[in-house]
């Protein structure tokens, strides 16, 4: 080997050794860490300066998933999965700190960077966490808030009307149903009944959402509660107003239903009375016609009988009858101007002088 080549080889070897020493020294400081595992959406375990350490990301709060005293919040599992996609075991990260380095649970508080990507901000920009201030640590708040505002503008994650558990979706869907409750008066019993049912269903659904959101507390649902208070302060009042309107409409449609039912009964009663009258008139007319037909038939029968008897008389020869000639008795001759006693014959029509 030439001398020059030997010196080059020695120089390279020294450089690698020196570089390795620098690298090892760097990752023994508290400004760097190596990811071990993700705990939830804003907490991760890593090795810092040779010590296994649990790190809570600064100025970002994601929906709860692991706290046994709290319910699993909307998009909590998704926030954990998102952080797992950003920080995988073995990844090397850079850490920055603020005034307080630990929280009351003994977790290290830090801003985490990976390949110049600010992880705290990325979570907020995905809509899977919100910017928070825990005094005196506010150093990274503005940058995390900028990420959150991006998510709001793009309606991502917790700000999406397409995510069923998110506040915009819950309130928005309820308001859509409530806005579709018809306000015009029904014209039929069926229509009024349907309108009242629709109003009742929409009001019940809206009331359920309202009660559910009002039941949230900072202890049980910290992220959802904070969003409701800070980002959607008018959502509940608007929802309650729409629920009340739907309930009023339900009452109106129910009253209209009762009116239409009453009108329907009266109409059917009048129709029944009119029908009964028509039937009675038809019956009377039919009976009169039947009586007239019976009378006509009887008269026809009598006429035929009379005609038959007349025909029979015409066809039977009448016996010839002779009237005996009356013989007037001869009047006795009496003296003219006889004034003596008269003796009358039986019947008193003729007489003769007595003596």
UniProtKB/TrEMBL annotation:
Keywords: Signal. Residues 243-355 are annotated as: Disordered. Residues 29-161 form the TNase-like domain. One of its GO terms (molecular function) is nuclease activity. Residues 1-24 form the signal peptide. PROSITE patterns: TNASE_1, TNASE_2, TNASE_3. Gene3D superfamilies: 2.40.50.90. Residues 247-293, 301-315 have a biased composition (Basic and acidic residues). Pfam families: SNase (PF00565). This is TNase-like domain-containing protein.
